[in-house]
Predict the 3D structure of the following.
Amino acid sequence: QLQLVESGGGLVQPGGSLRLSCAASGFTLDAYGIGWFRQAPGKEREGVSCISRGGGSTNYAASVKGRFTISRDNAKNTVYLQMNSLKPEDTAIYYCARTVQRVCTIARYDYWGRGTQVTVSS
């Protein structure tokens, strides 16, 4: 069964941290680039971060660079997004998705998870 499942979202205070997980079933994650995206109310979905096939390249949106870290654990068939120094503007539903293309920043993502809610508020 082909599936991507995000988890780890929740409510956190500004300055806090969350670790999101993107767990794959039905396929092997290391054959794909994985992107994290987010969508806040009233806004278009935006790319947050992505990791290339093989894990050799990571990329970040300017708004999260230096605060977020993407990584993969092939043994667990899971990609993570460590989010530190969270800000209220990080509040959104976060999605992960896969691509067969090598360059994850210019890629078509063919399968998406259902998302996990991140709320940053005091």
